[in-house]
Amino acid sequence: MAGTDTEKKPVLEMVQADGSDEGSVTFVLHEEDHTLGNSLRYMIMKNPDVEFCGYSITHPSESKINFRIQTRGGLPATEPLRKGLNDLTDVCKHVLHTFETQLKDFREKQGEAME
Amino acid sequence: MAVPMSNVDEIRDRVILGEFGVKNVHSTDFPGNYPGYDDTWDLKKFKKNFRLDVVHMDENTLEFDMVGIDAAIANAFRRILLAEVPTIAVEKVFIYNNTSIIQDEILAHRLGLVPIKADPRLFEYRNTGGEEEGTEIDTVQLQLKIKCTRNPRASKDASDPKELYLNHMVYSRDMKWVPIGNQADVFADANIGPVHGDILLAQLRPGQELDIVMHCVKGLGKDHAKFSPVATASYRLLPDITLLQTIEGEKAERLKRCFSPGVIELEDVDGKKVAKVVNSRLDTCSREVLRHDDLKSLVKLGRVRDHFIFSVESTGILPPDVLVSEAVNVLIAKCQKFLSELDSVAEME
């Protein structure tokens, strides 16, 4: 790799078209793909304050996605993004918790069956 | 007979397998799409509806049902399992001697694909770009040093290579761990080395030898498939078969044969054989029934949109349940990364 640049790689950029308000923003998520893009899009589309949410992969050889949010009523687009990320974290935590308790139950049952 | 679903509920909850195509593929449960439905995100509602059942687990495979979650999130877990849960694999191969007929680069590639049993959670990523040597916290060193010789004890008229030569088959078990720094103490009972000892790496003839040192590092499946911790990780949706009318006699027999064994069974009702859906989970969704003109209008084939039957098959480096937990944690970490980035952007303004 020709990685001699000492600059920190960007993680998140915000792009706003000239004259548009802060309710319509394209976020550039670096080093991400459909994994976070689609799940986050789903969570944000569940938010009634959001008029539009979608994402695109710029090019197969670029590892970044353009993540577009347009809100209703002049709400800053960072708010639904923040809420979406928090909601997705909550979902994951619940899935993890449920998985671990169910796994424990399964192991106990299996242990009983063995005896 | 099951009570037919309302039209809207069917669109929301089922993927319909029709004769000429699959209908209602996309999730549509977003606010404003359906009058009378509140589709706003509600964690309480999610927790109430979410279910997870472990169906089967052994050393290397895991099957579980995840119900009440959207495909976008289930798919994220699947994708992370394939490409973003780290493992340790051979990355650098130093070939000091290779007189076998297998070329250096082919041998190096084969070595890379051997699953290495070393817990990736106990190691750091090696710095990219820099040319510095690996250290005890980011590198596992393996050595493959083997030479083929004639077997002095072979009988005179032997023609079988197994009897004639010693060490003529090089297996993954010949890759020996060479601890760096304090690794010998830290990983004393970790048993670092290839997961499977019986992977054939090369064949030798007397006089040929291999002298190789390998550096194994932590990496992700999206960089190279050798780092993928799973053989496969996939999900399918639970099949849903509804009989719209009572089907009996010869038709019932034929209906039963249209599905996988165990899906439809015949019940004896007043001397007549009546078809009944017993276990739709076993169906392969072949849609064979839709080729029978007299049967296709009597059944409705679908899949439950939010019932995922996950199957995870580990390569043996980590147990499959650990892989699933790790995958969920990876998605949490991604969210947290962007949340903290958002906070730092907000602070700058």
What would your notes on this structure say?
The complex is a heterodimer of chains A (115) and B (349). With 115 residues, chain A is an alpha+beta fold. Chain A has helices at 34-45, 78-114, and strands at 12-15, 24-30, 50-57, 64-71. Chain A starts with 11 loop residues before the first strand and ends with a helix. Chain A has two helices and four strands. Chain A has a four-stranded antiparallel β-sheet with strand order 1-2-4-3, covered by helices on one side. By secondary structure, chain B is an alpha+beta fold. Helix content of chain B is 23%, strand content 32%. Chain B is built from eight helices and 18 strands. In chain B, helix 3 (71-83) crosses helix 8 (320-348). The radius of gyration of chain B is 28 Å and the shape is flat. The chains are: A alpha+beta (115), B alpha+beta (349). At the A-B interface, helix 1 and helix 2 of A face helix 2, strand 3, helix 3 and helix 8 of B.
Please describe the structure with a list of short key phrases separated by commas or semicolons.
heterodimer; A: 115 residues; alpha+beta; B: 349 residues; six-stranded antiparallel sheet; four-stranded antiparallel sheet; acetylation (chain B); cytoplasm (chain B); nucleus (chain B); DNA-directed RNA polymerases I and III subunit RPAC1 (chain B)
**Broad shape of chain B:** flat
Largest sheet of chain B: 6 strands, antiparallel
Major beta sheet, strand line-up of chain A: 1-2-4-3
Which structural category do the helix and sheet elements of chain B fall into?
alpha+beta
Overall 3D form of chain A: elongated
Largest sheet of chain A: 4 strands, antiparallel
Taking Cα atoms only, what radius of gyration of chain A do you get, to the nearest Å? 20 Å
Give the oligomer, counting copies of the same chain as homo and different chains as hetero: heterodimer
- Low-pLDDT sequence parts of chain A: none
- Mean pLDDT score of chain B, rounded? 94
SSE string of chain A: EEHEEH
Strand content of chain A: 15-25%
Largest protein-protein interface: A-B, 45 and 48 residues
Number of strands of chain A: 4
Output the number of helix runs of chain B: 8
The Rg value of chain B, from CA coordinates, equals 28 Å
InterPro entries (chain A): RBP11-like, RBP11-like_dimer, RNA_pol_Rpb11_13-16kDa_CS, RNAP_AC19, Rpo11-like
Pfam families (chain A): RNA_pol_L_2
Protein name (chain A): DNA-directed RNA polymerases I and III subunit RPAC2
Subcellular location (chain A): Nucleus
